[in-house]
Specification:
The complex is a heterotrimer of chains A (about 350), B (about 290) and C (about 375). Chain A has 2 domains: about 190 residues, Periplasmic binding protein-like II (D-Maltodextrin-Binding Protein, domain 2), CATH 3.40.190.10; about 140 residues, Periplasmic binding protein-like II (D-Maltodextrin-Binding Protein, domain 2), CATH 3.40.190.10. In chain A, about 40% of the residues lie in helices and about 20% in strands. In chain A, helix 8 packs across helix 9 and helix 11 crosses helix 12. Chain A is built from 15 helices and 14 strands. Chain B has one domain: MetI-like (MetI-like fold, Orthogonal Bundle). A two-stranded antiparallel sheet of chain B has the order 1-2. In chain B, strand 1 and strand 2 form a beta hairpin. In chain B, helix 3 crosses helix 7, helix 3 crosses helix 10 and helix 12 packs antiparallel against helix 13. Chain C is of the alpha+beta class and about 375 residues long. Chain C folds into 2 domains: about 230 residues, 3-Layer(aba) Sandwich (Rossmann fold), CATH 3.40.50; about 120 residues, OB fold (Dihydrolipoamide Acetyltransferase, E2P) (Beta Barrel), CATH 2.40.50.140. Chain C is built from 8 helices and 20 strands. The model of chain C has no long low-confidence stretch (mean pLDDT about 90). Classes of the chains: A alpha/beta (about 350), B mainly alpha (about 290), C alpha+beta (about 375). At the A-B interface, helix 3, strand 9 and helix 15 of A face helix 3 and helix 12 of B.
Chain lengths: ~350, ~290, ~375
């Protein structure tokens, strides 16, 4: 065996084990679970002739490290609206040719107006699904339903409270402190939020990191109140027979929006745009609504594929609800101050 | 040319491992060290040569606190493993008369190593949970009236889980060290007037110290770098240094700080290893 | 002299069929050097370990200076053991090793130092005080092991194959040294060995063991001259055995048909006429007879083999009835092939009547 052969063998091994398939007509998407669910993706694969390979992320923090590790692997990604700007600034994604996307103009104008998905007059993200970071409680644990964020600071619920292990904890604490400008907090306001979270720490059973983990915590009876991705964990818990209720506290809730973005220099542009069109159509919009319980960004597609009950439950025709949400906003260079404060809370 | 041909097999045998070490150990360390001097700047970070990251680590109390917490957990895990593993290994080597039973018990401790780490950690979640096995057991005995939440999602649960997972690394070296002690040394000690306890303290324990040191090093280093247990069974106060490093490389997108943390962690671990190595060497000169 | 060790019907049965020591009774006098001799598996080491307290007998009693110590642990007995491979503590210096046994005596520091020094001087290794066992040679370690045991001034010193790990030259030297040491310290020594020379050279008394029992005990010379059984005769020294039959008895003299002739002997046992016996002759007591020379008993045969072993020759002879007998002879001053016995040559052998052993029955040793 020569060195050359050894090297070739090693490279071959790497090729076999290291990467998703790179065949022609195949698109690799880095996304959330449910966003490429076989229930609607297989139909797309049949009609378009494009194969879809999905890799799932556990949090918005996974997008940047995965794309930084080297290009050429993923074609499409779905970061949330607080992370889309970072993708643009990191030069990971390319502008969209919105003319090639049917139904673009049916997207909620409120979403198209968001700063996070555009730069220099060009769109980089296609709004796809949205929802609230609502709060949730276990029905059998409360005589009077909780209505406030302050209920997550109640002494009598000590050891039964959970909070998302995310910088959004700062948003929650700031609102409890009465600071409603949660995306432009001053250093003092952040410090106050950090202090509030440290006070809450002894009451916390566990900070939840993944959707599945929160479901487990409720199921095992460890937790009775927390924040949640509205529509998602509650339906998983309903399937398990655990009765929980979502609520929007009087301090308001954050709203999130996930957008599809095309990774810069993808060689599979044709399939990528076919995929975008599908996701914005009834197939994709009701697909994600049915699988994850998230609301759709294309209201007219949603109207034709949803039952009236589902349409209402997902607040598809409820501008007041949408307006009440504090939609996530890119933090830019304030990002570090937020994450640092949250890390300091966890280090306490 | 003939020199090359003659020595080619040897160069391959030595060369491939060396290349492997260079490529997959030295190079990554070099990269991490380099990053640790860089500067965080939105959206990512920029090349620089400055010690800001290290200064942050030693001045921002959150990092010192997590380092100390990690140190505490690792020491507790090592100590708990030692307290459980030593009597167990001692029993196997000196007291267990049946060779079949000895093999069986030894395998029972080692076998979990073949089971996925995650699975083993999950087991403890079901045991320690509020509606878990331990609570049901204690309630059935009437020791407690209602399920206790004291067992899971705290540092206690982390120590229990990590001890369970890493105890084979304590049992194996101690077992080997004890097995190497000739039985006639303990007999000689008894012959020279020492009762069983004093014989243990003056002969068996000192001679098994190299194994103990190796066990401490292994369990300590493995615990020190762990980040799964805090995630699965740790509570709000369970963040360890590895979790902080993961956060810096992920959520915070601050690779320079993460790299500096990793370097400090490496220094701590290397210090422990060299200390224990010195101890083993010292034991060796007295070794059999 | 008073008895220091008394073994009374000592047995060690590991199971009904596996018997280590079987009903052994033995008394050792104060100051005696007694050797337990036998092949491996004869129970000699087990017996020694029971005296030391490392194993408990399943029957019988052990008394040390009139005190029953049968079930006392080793650390409560005033006996000390020199282990086969010395069992020195590798993590201690020579000084610490020797001082180790004094810890329980609660002596003051100076006394400890003096006694350690005395013990090391006794074995001539005081200069090794601060070295480690690993730095010493086998013979030196052996002496340290002795010093470590003697420093406690035990009533009895037990030695388990103490010289077996040494090479032949050193072993011979240590045999003498040990014997002198025994005389010097005056402690009772009980040694276990499988080496008959060691046993004969060093001991006041030898206890030959066979299958867990005592085959014979006595002074080395008595065992050599009057072995009680073919087993002992062959274990102590070498013996050629011939099957025989008693043809006549008168007084202490027996006439026995053996080796194709009639021989006379002075048996140690009482025999009856016509009894089947085994006759034993030591090669070194067999004389090659020159022409015309005669002896009490004369055997005729042919030389089957001649073995040269430096000091002399061992000549293996086939007798008229097919049985074999060995004869040792010193080499003549001038060595020449013509004077050396040759294979196949006829030969006459002479043995004095008092050098013939007679044992009852037929035995295949």
């Amino acid at each position: 065996m020569t060195i050359k052969k050894t090297m070739l063998g090693t490279l071959g091994l790497l090729a076999l084990t290291a990467s998703p398939v790179l065949a022609e007509g195949t698109i690799n998407v880095l996304t959330w679970e449910g966003y490429a669910d076989p229930s609607f993706i297989s139909k797309f694969e049949e009609t378009s002739g494009c194969q879809v390979n999905a890799t799932y992320v556990g949090s918005n923090d996974d997008f940047a490290p995965k794309l930084m590790a080297g290009g050429g692997v993923y074609d499409l990604i779905t970061p949330s609206i607080d992370t889309t700007k970072l993708m643009i600034d990191l030069d990971f994604v390319e502008p969209l040719d919105t003319a090639k996307i049917e139904g673009w103009n049916d997207i909620y104008p409120k979403f198209l107006a968001l700063d996070g998905i555009q730069k220099d007059g060009e769109y980089y993200g296609m709004p796809y699904s949205w929802g609230a970071i609502a709060f949730m409680y276990r029905d059998d644990a409360f005589d009077t339903p909780p209505t406030s964020i302050a209920d997550l600071w109640r002494e009598d619920l000590k050891g039964k409270i959970s909070l998302w292990d995310d910088k959004s904890a700062i948003y929650v604490a700031a609102r409890k402190n009465g600071d409603m400008n949660i995306y432009s907090l001053s250093d003092e306001q952040i410090a106050a939020a950090q202090k509030t979270l440290v006070e809450q720490k002894p009451l916390i059973r566990k900070y939840w990191a993944t959707a599945g983990e929160l479901v487990d915590l409720y199921k095992a009876g460890e937790v009775v109140i927390s924040n949640t991705w509205a529509g998602y964990q509650s339906s998983l818990l309903a399937d398990e027979g655990v009765k929980v209720t979502e609520f929007i506290p009087k301090e308001g809730a954050e709203g999130w929006l996930d957008s599809w973005m095309v990774v810069k220099g993808t060689p599979n542009k044709e399939c990528a745009y076919k995929f975008l069109n599908m996701q914005l159509s009834e197939l994709g919009q009701c697909g994600v609504a049915n699988v994850n319980g998230y609301s759709a960004a294309n209201a007219s597609a949603a109207k034709s594929c949803m039952t009236p009950e589902q349409f209402a439950a997902l607040h598809q025709d409820d501008p007041a609800y949408l307006d009440s949400l504090l939609i996530w906003t890119p933090l830019g260079d304030r990002f570090e101050a937020y994450t640092n404060a949250w890390n300091a809370v966890k280090a306490q | 040319m003939s020199f090359l041909r003659r020595n080619l097999p040897g160069m391959l045998v030595m060369g491939i491992p060396l290349m492997w070490i260079a490529l997959f150990m030295l190079l990554p360390y070099g990269i991490i060290v380099t990053y640790s001097f860089w500067l965080k700047k939105y959206p990512t970070f920029i090349p620089a040569f400055q010690f800001g990251n290290y200064i942050t680590i030693f001045t921002d109390p959150q990092y010192v606190r997590v380092f100390l917490r990690t140190l505490k957990i690792s020491v507790l895990v090592s100590a708990a493993s030692f307290l459980l593993a030593y009597p167990f290994a001692y029993y196997l080597v000196f007291r267990c008369r049946s060779a079949a039973l000895r093999t069986w018990l030894y395998m029972a401790v080692i076998a979990p190593l073949w089971v996925s780490y995650l699975l083993r950690a999950y087991i403890w979640k079901t045991i320690l949970g509020t509606e878990g096995v331990l609570n049901s057991f204690l309630m059935s005995l009437g020791i407690i009236n209602e399920p206790s939440s004291l067992f899971l999602y705290n540092q206690f649960a982390m120590v229990v889980t990590l001890t369970y997972i890493f105890i084979p690394f304590m049992v194996m070296p101690i077992y080997t060290a004890l097995e190497k002690i000739p039985t006639n040394l303990t007999e000689a000690s008894a012959d020279l007037g020492m009762g069983p306890w004093r014989s243990f303290w003056t002969v068996t324990l000192p001679l098994s110290l190299p194994g103990v040191a190796a066990g401490f090093t292994l369990t300590f280093c493995l615990s020190f770098g762990d980040f799964i247990a805090p995630f699965l069974v740790g509570g709000p106060d369970g963040n360890l240094i590895a979790n902080v490093i993961a956060t810096q490389f992920g959520a915070a997108l601050n690779w320079p700080l993460g790299s500096a943390l990793a370097i400090v962690m490496l220094v701590v671990v290397l210090t422990i290893v060299s200390l224990s190595d010195r101890m083993e060497r010292k034991g060796m000169t007295g070794g059999v | 002299m008073a008895a220091i060790i008394e073994l009374e019907n000592i047995s060690k049965h590991y199971s009904p069929t596996i018997i280590g020591v079987d009903n052994v009774s033995l008394t050792v006098e104060d100051g005696e050097f007694v050797t337990l001799l036998g092949p491996s598996g004869c129970g000699k080491s087990t017996l020694l370990r029971m005296i030391g307290g490392f194993e408990e007998p399943t029957g019988g009693a052990i008394r040390l200076a009139d005190k029953d110590v049968t079930f006392d642990p080793p650390y409560k007995r005033e006996v000390n053991m020199v282990f086969q491979d010395y069992a020195l503590f590798p993590h201690m210096t020579i000084g610490e090793n020797v001082a180790y046994g004094l810890k329980t005596f609660k002596l003051d520091k100076d006394t400890v130092r003096t006694r350690v020094k005395d013990a090391l001087m006794l074995v001539g290794l005081y200069d090794k005080l601060n070295q480690r066992p690993q730095q010493l040679s086998g013979g030196q370690r052996q002496r340290i092991a002795l010093a470590r045991a003697i420093v406690r001034r035990p009533k009895v010193l037990l030695l388990d194959e103490p010289l077996s790990a040494l090479d032949a030259k050193l072993r011979e030297q240590m045999q003498i040294e040990l014997k002198h040491l025994h005389e010097k310290v005056g402690i009772t020594f009980i040694m276990v060995t499988h080496d008959q020379t060691e046993a004969l050279v060093m001991s006041d008394r030898v206890v030959v063991m066979e299958k867990g029992r005592i085959a014979q005990e006595g002074r080395p010379q008595d065992l050599y001259d009057h072995p009680a059984s073919p087993y002992v005769a062959n274990f102590i020294g070498t013996t050629s055995f011939l099957p025989g039959k008693v043809s006549a008895l008168s007084g202490g003299v027996a006439t026995i048909a053996a080796g194709g002739t009639q021989i006379t002997a002075h048996p140690d046992v009482t025999l009856s006429e016509g009894a089947t016996v085994t006759v034993g002759v030591r090669p070194e007591k067999v004389k090659l007879l020159a022409e015309g020379e005669t002896a009490d008993n004369v055997f005729e045969g042919t030389i089957a083999e001649v073995i040269y072993y430096g000091l002399g020759l061992r000549i293996s002879v086939t007798l008229a009835d097919g049985s074999k007998i060995d004869a040792d002879t010193l080499l003549p001053d001038k060595l020449s092939h013509s004077t050396l016995p040759q294979s196949g040559a006829p030969v006459r052998l002479g043995v004095a009547a008092h050098n013939v052993f007679v044992f009852e029955g037929t035995v295949t040793p």
